[in-house]
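All the exercises in this workshop are built on plain-text protein records. There is nothing in a record beyond a sequence line and a structure line. A learned vocabulary of local backbone shapes supplies the integers on the structure line. The question running through the whole workshop is how a given chain folds. Here is such a record, shown just as it appears in the course material:

***
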Amino acid sequence: MARSRTQKCTACGAYGLTTTCKQCGALAQAAAPLKFSPEDPQAARRRQFQNVTDPEWTANLPTTASKGEGKAEKEGENSEEEE
């Protein structure tokens, strides 16, 4: 299964094949998500290759902060610097 190469500009909505828009120069991202099948015949092999059962694998996953957490941390840092 081939990945989609089509990119969509985040600013003007133009389509292209590069990660930067040729019309406005803004960032472009994948136009559609990759296809997914719950009956993936290669899933077991992929999980084994990526070493998913290893505890270090889960520790290295990126985490998302809540919208309020990032702002609160920045405000706390600024108030400490002012003192």
Remarks:
- The chain has a mean pLDDT of 78.
- Residues 1-35 form one domain.
